[in-house]
Specification:
Chain B: InterPro entries: ABTB1, Ankyrin_rpt, Ankyrin_rpt-contain_sf, BTB/POZ_dom, SKP1/BTB/POZ_sf. Chain B: This is BTB domain-containing protein. Chain B: One of its GO terms (cellular component) is ubiquitin ligase complex. Chain B: Keywords: ANK repeat, Repeat. Chain B: Pfam families: Ank_4, BTB. The structure holds two protein chains of two kinds. Chain A is mainly alpha-helical. In chain A, 67% of the residues lie in helices and 5% in strands. Chain A folds into four domains: 182 residues, Up-down Bundle (5 helical Cullin repeat like), CATH 1.20.1310.10; 180 residues, 5 helical Cullin repeat like (Up-down Bundle), CATH 1.20.1310.10; 125 residues, Cullin, Chain C, Domain 2 (Ribosomal Protein S5, domain 2, 2-Layer Sandwich), CATH 3.30.230.130; 81 residues, Winged helix-like DNA-binding domain superfamily/Winged helix DNA-binding domain (Arc Repressor Mutant, subunit A), CATH 1.10.10.10. In chain A, the strands form three sheets. In chain A, strands 1-2-6 form a three-stranded mixed β-sheet. In chain A, strands 3-5-4 form a three-stranded antiparallel β-sheet. A three-stranded antiparallel β-sheet of chain A has the order 7-9-8. In chain A, strand 1 and strand 2 form a beta hairpin. The radius of gyration of chain A is 48 Å and the shape is elongated. The termini of chain A are far apart. By secondary structure, chain B is of the alpha/beta class. In chain B, 57% of the residues lie in helices and 7% in strands. In chain B, strand 5 and strand 6 form a beta hairpin. Chain B is flat, with a radius of gyration of 29 Å. Classes of the chains: A mainly alpha, B alpha/beta. At the A-B interface, helix 2, helix 4, helix 6 and helix 7 of A face helix 18, helix 20 and helix 22 of B.
């Protein structure tokens, strides 16, 4: 070792230029040939690598590169000429492809130094990639894509056979498609370049698939059976989804799924739903879970609900015309039974709603469909004008009056149904009106816990502003109870009602009370004005009752009667008989009330406290009334009811509507002023939008709003813009 | 296999728990044996995720359970930079165990990876570590023998023909036994080490005559402070690496070089000679490489190991490809190991001399990078041929160590050409600097003119605007030589030009540049 250090050896071996290209290349060429012919296991990596290394080191890189390229090219051309275009081409080409890949891996291993140095410095494709590109150009795409097209055709044929139920070798298809994917089309843009698969196979595949499913779906549709269509389509899609992952590239999966979904579902479903004997209508009528669930599943896949929504809307409206409208006709026929009709109608609506709830359940309670179905309900229910509000109020009234007989479940159900229908009502102010009247009457008779429960349910639904006045009524009742207790008169109980909360107007005419009652009234008036100075009390006799103990011939009875009746009866304490005219003068009770009261206590069969002559249902001025000492009844306590005047109930309805219109005017006016005060200037349309947004209790028509705006213009709350007539300014 | 899947699943769970901040789950998963330092499928460690997401208590827990935050390494630095709060950052730094320590010695990580990945099937022994039939590990005899005297003694005697060792009977504590094997393979798995019964491990270490390791464990047991323990563990790891370096140096010196077979250049090695190399030493080679040294007229055979040769790309591809070199080995299909009964192959190492071969062997086995200057050029080309950039760089470092050319007889032009051929910039710059330093001498040397011309031809289809790389480099070093600093000056600005012109060396610099211009005109080159 030491001796060697003194005589340094120049690095001759590696720096000399004594490489014979032809000699080295012939060794390499021969070996590459062996490799390409799968006969390479005896070759020495070391020898081949060293040869290629030396050539590259000696600047023969370019020659080596070109020679290798030509040799592989010639080899592939030779193979190409031996490939026959027949059924077995797929297997054959796949074999060639597999062994070519192995050969290319070996060649590129040997030429590793060429890749690392020459290719890198000159920005050329690596040896392996050259081999793949040559396979593309010399095998697959040679002569106008001859083999490539043939393979496309074979693959598609196999897939179509499989779709028709035959067994297919998907492994070979997958291998061929993977090969297509490996064949890059754009060599300069390797990263995001197109490949043979994307350029030639996929479009062909998509087109053929389109044709196939278009034909199948048309054929299926022509069977005219909706259930069959849904089931078959579902099977087809499942089948295709399961199969295509066995062979198709993951890039094409979404495209394929979109395609078949579009052909089988989106484009056909509208007509399928319309099928008359087995379509949406029949499924809904019979609440068919399987069909409806499947329908939803399919539509959800494509997120396409328009056709379904449109048709459901139609069906709901039709459904209504079959069941509910008949009820309405009856309604017109027999006016007397409004309560019955109301209950019936509401019952029908609830039933219908329940049915669609079940259907919605089959639709996975999809929020979009739910909203649309509810809108359909709103549409049909409100198309009947004010009736729905009235019916609901009657329905509630009836239920609450009889609620003592109901159990908790029924009450729960009642509350739910009430609130559902309440939700559907567009003009909630109208409902409020009806409801308030009913509530007032109920409250004055006797209070019920259910009332408060319902109010709080409504409050939860729409907010406290709606129930403010209603709650005021309850408050009045509570205060009155305390007040009566404080006033401490054992025979006297009073309800003090705040005028603005209650739907009752004070009676303008004063009547003459009997001395006992009059003193009591004076006493209370005094007490109240001491308690709250500045408050005025108006007495509403026709809502009160009087209890009178009378000793009749047979028995002592305790009569519970309306105030007017009581006053009349008390007249007979001293006098035996009076004419109608006399009673009228002595009491000054308004004519209609007087007639009604007299009918109650002289004509009504079980409560004839007075006798009337002549005995008829009509009352004339000169009719004579006498106290009936012989009155008898099975119970000690007798309740006298006022005869209801039907004509008046009708009148009440019309006044209600008028009042509502007045209320609405105020509310719209207030809203407009409020909006304009904050915005100062707004165009007509902007103002409309704002108004509709702010009004929750009812939906006024644009014409109605326009009239209110005109009115406000007249009253100079607003003025039109000088230049733009459709713009308004707020005037302070 | 299912065990690995389970372990990785635990790691994934652990990392997810660290993202979401579920400290109880982290605690549970760690107790179930999730490896705290493994990465999930997004290459994140639990510690990084917990730090990034700002889960301070989890960070603390992870660190206590053995998560390593080494700020000198990528993962640790990533933790510190990613930490959401200063508090976490401080905590991470306080647990940082290895400032200024290189735990990533290339040879050590290669040996570790031999055990952890199976790119090349080169194991020749199966060891049963636990009672479960899946608790086996495939190992390399040469590794066990080189690293451990007990194994060396056994493998050359009792276990000489064994393929399958049931160590679990003699050593029932599987985890402790695994720690021993890990230690041999230079793997330091702190979570395993944390869980293992230290007394058992100590007992086994003594049994296996791992005396250093045993005393380290004893030392470790005396430390109670967590931070000190971590530091100690790190120091231990470094010690283990250094011990290993000595072990492999011994393997090379006594097992490979001492056993080398020298033959006259025309004489072939016989089968009996190969068998002798294969079986009669504690080297346990699986391949023989030979070098034909024409200068000395000898062929020399070294018994070596494929799993070490694959550190360079050349052998990796050779053994991974399907040429004859990879065909010799019979696989024991049952145990999935290499069958030792097959005669090992003899292949050529295409380098020029015995000395170069030995340098390369030493480099591969224990990162021996001290390359004598007289062989540096040969090693450079060997590195180029074997496709090892690191080896090339090591050789180039040796070549460029001296500021005087020709100190070992290399011609500066040859060095430059070698630099061009092997694409080592360092050599080109070295040559340009030496030429600039002595420019007048070179300007009159006709060989300098030749090489300038050569440099100009290195660019194919040269345009007139293209520069000559060598000339550019020389100009650059001239500026350095005359201390003309262009940094911070803008081209074309008169002020800058004026400033430069006032520098003391500017005139000399300009003179040298003019001389080069004259030379280029002479050569009819533009640059």
């Amino acid at each position: 070792m030491l001796s060697r250090k003194s005589k340094i050896r120049p690095p001759k071996k590696n720096l000399s230029n004594d490489v014979n290209f032809e000699k080295s290349w012939s060794i390499l060429s021969q070996s590459i040939d062996q490799i390409l012919n799968q006969n390479a296991s005896n070759l020495s990596f070391e020898e081949l690598y060293r040869n290629s290394y030396n050539l590259v080191l000696r600047k023969f890189g370019k020659q080596l590169y070109e020679n290798v390229k030509n040799q592989i090219s010639d080899h592939l051309l030779g193979i190409n000429s031996r490939i026959l275009l027949n059924k077995d081409s797929m297997v054959k080409v796949n074999e060639i492809w597999e062994s070519h890949q192995i050969s290319m891996r070996m060649i590129s291993d040997v030429l590793m130094y060429l890749d690392r140095v020459y290719c890198k410095e000159n920005h050329l494709p690596l040896t392996y990639d050259i081999g793949i590109n040559l396979f593309r150009d010399k095998i697959i795409k040679l002569n106008d894509n001859k083999i490539g097209n043939h393979l496309n055709y074979l693959v598609m044929e196999q897939i179509t056979l499989n779709r028709n139920g035959l067994i297919t070798d998907f492994f070979i298809i997958k291998s061929i498609l993977k090969m297509f994917e490996a064949l890059i089309e754009d060599e300069l843009n390797l990263e995001n370049g197109e490949n043979f698969y994307l350029k030639y196979f996929e479009p062909f595949y998509i087109e053929k698939t389109h044709q196939y499913y278009e034909n199948i779906s048309l054929e299926l549709f022509n069977h005219g059976n909706g259930s069959e269509y849904l089931n078959k389509v579902n099977d087809l899609i499942l089948n295709e989804e399961n199969k295509c992952i066995l062979y198709l590239s993951s890039i094409s999966l979404p495209k394929l799924n979109d395609l078949i979904n579009k052909i089988l579902i989106t484009s056909k479903i509208e007509n399928v739903l319309k099928l008359s004997n087995d379509g949406l209508k029949s499924w809904i009528q019979h609440s068919k879970q399987d069909e409806l669930s499947l329908l939803y599943k399919l539509l959800k896949k494509v997120e396409y609900f328009d056709a379904l929504i449109a048709q459901i809307n139609e069906i709901i409206i039709d459904d209504e015309s079959l069941t509910l409208r008949e009820q309405l006709k009856q309604d017109e026929g027999k006016k007397s039974k409004i309560v019955t009709i109301a209950i019936d109608y509401i019952g029908q609506v609830i039933k219908l709603k329940a049915k669609y709830d079940t259907i919605l359940n089959y639709f996975q309670n999809d929020p979009i469909l739910q909203r649309n179905i509810e809108n359909s309900f709103i549409e049909i229910l409100n198309s009947k004008g004010t009736k729905i509000s009235e019916y609901l109020s009657y329905f509630i009234d009836e239920f609450i009056k009889k609620s003592k007989e109901r159990n908790d479940d029924e009450i729960e159900e009642f509350l739910n149904s009430s609130i559902i229908i309440f939700r559907f009502i567009k003009d909630k102010d109208l409902f409020e009106k009806f409801y308030k009247n009913h509530l007032a009457k109920r409250l004055l008779k006797n209070s019920n816990d259910l009332e408060k429960l319902l109010i709080s349910t409504i409050k939860n639904e729409i907010g406290s502003s709606f129930t403010l006045k209603l709650e005021g009524m309850f408050k009045d009742m509570n205060i009155s109870k305390d007040l009566s207790a404080k006033f401490n008169h054992k025979n006297f109980q009073i309800n003090i009602l705040t005028k603005t909360f209650w739907p009752i107007q004070p009676n303008p005419s004063e009547i003459i009370l009997t001395p006992v009652l009059e003193s009591l009234q004076k006493q209370f008036n005094q007490y109240y004005s001491d308690l709250y100075s500045g408050r005025n009390l108006s007495w509403l006799y026709n809502f009160g009752t009087i209890d009178i103990r009378i000793k009749f011939n047979k028995k002592i009875h305790e009569l519970n009667c309306p105030t007017y009746c009581g006053i009349i009866i008390l007249l007979f304490e001293d006098i035996e008989e009076l004419t109608f005219k006399q009673i009228k003068e002595l009491t000054k009770i308004p004519n209609s009330d007087l007639i009604r009261s007299l009918l109650s206590i002289s004509v009504a069969p079980r409560t004839r406290i007075l006798t009337k002559s002549p005995m008829s249902k009509e009352i004339k001025d000169d009719d004579i009334f006498k106290f009936n000492h012989n009155f008898s009844a099975p119970m000690t306590k007798v309740k006298i009811l006022t005869v209801i005047n039907k004509i008046e109930t009708d009148q009440e309805r019309t006044t209600n509507l008028k009042e509502i219109e007045e209320d609405r005017k105020f509310e719209i006016d207030a809203t407009i002023v409020r909006i304009m005060k904050s915005k100062k200037i707004l165009s007509h349309n902007e103002l409309l939008v704002e108004i509709v947004k702010q009004l929750k209790r009812f939906k006024p028509s644009p014409q109605f709003i326009k009239r209110r705006i005109d009115n406000l213009l007249e009253r100079e709350y607003l003025k039109r813009d000088d230049n733009d007539r459709t713009t308004y300014h707020y005037l302070a | 296999m299912t065990e690995t899947i389970r372990e990785q699943a635990l790691v994934e769970d652990l990392c997810m728990a660290c993202r979401v901040g579920d400290i109880e789950n982290v605690d549970k998963l760690l107790s179930m044996g999730a490896n705290v330092n493994k990465v999930d499928k997004f290459d994140n460690t639990a510690l990084y995720l917990a730090s990034l997401c700002g889960h301070e208590p989890i960070v603390k827990l992870l660190l206590q359970r053995g998560a390593v935050c080494d700020t000198d390494k990528y993962e640790g630095a990533r933790c510190v930079y990613g930490a959401l709060t200063d508090k976490i950052r401080k905590m991470l730094i306080s647990y940082d165990i290895s400032k200024a320590v290189d735990t990533n010695l290339p040879f050590a990580s290669h040996f570790r990876s031999l055990f952890l990945s199976r790119d090349l099937l080169s194991e020749d022994l199966v060891i049963q570590l636990g009672d479960n039939s899946s608790a086996i590990e495939r190992c390399h005899r040469f590794m066990l023998s080189a690293r451990n005297a007990y194994f060396r003694q056994k493998l050359t005697t009792t276990w000489k023909h064994a393929n399958y060792l049931e160590l679990n009977e003699e050593f029932p504590d599987e985890l402790a036994l695994r720690c021993i094997i890990d230690h041999i393979y230079l793997i330091q798995d702190s979570s395993k080490f944390g869980r293992v019964n230290k007394e058992k491990l100590l007992e086994y270490a003594k049994w296996f005559q791992l005396h250093e390791f045993a005393s380290e464990i004893e030392e470790y047991l005396k430390i109670s402070d967590i931070k000190e323990r971590s530091k100690f563990m790190n120091e231990l790891q470094v010690k283990v690496f250094e011990d290993a370096r000595i072990d492999f140096k011994l393997l090379v010196d006594r097992g490979i070089i001492a056993n080398k077979l020298e033959m006259p250049i025309d004489q072939k090695i016989t089968v009996d000679q190969i068998k002798e190399l294969q079986y009669e030493t504690s080297t346990f080679p699986d391949i023989v490489i030979y070098i034909e040294d024409e200068y000395q007229g000898k062929t020399v055979y070294f018994p070596v190991h494929r799993s070490v040769l694959v550190r360079v790309e050349y052998f990796k591809v050779m053994f991974g490809s399907s040429f004859s070199e990879s065909q010799y080995f019979e696989i024991n299909q049952v145990l999935d190991i290499v069958d030792r009964a097959t005669l090992i192959p003899v292949i050529n190492l295409p380098v020029s001399s015995i000395e170069v071969a030995e340098i390369i062997i030493k480099y591969l086995y224990f990162d021996h990078t001290d390359i004598p200057e007289e062989f540096a050029i040969d090693v450079l080309f060997a590195g180029d041929l074997l496709l090892s950039d690191r080896l090339k760089t090591m050789a180039a470092v040796t070549i460029t160590r001296s500021d005087q050319q020709n100190s070992y007889g290399y011609d500066l032009y040859d060095i430059l050409r070698a630099g061009w051929q092997t694409r080592v910039d360092r050599l080109e710059h070295y040559a340009a600097r030496l030429i600039a330093d002595d420019i007048d001498k070179f300007l009159v040397d006709p060989r300098f003119r030749e090489i300038v011309d050569e440099s100009s031809k290195r660019i194919e289809k040269r345009q007139e605007t293209d520069t000559i790389e060598l000339i550019d480099d020389i100009r650059f070093y001239l500026a350095k030589k005359w201390k003309i600093d262009f940094d911070g000056l803008f081209e074309g600005e008169t002020e800058s030009a004026d400033f430069l012109a006032k520098l003391p060396g500017f005139e000399n610099y300009q003179t040298d540049l003019d001389k080069i211009e004259i030379l280029l005109e002479d050569l009819q080159l533009e640059a």
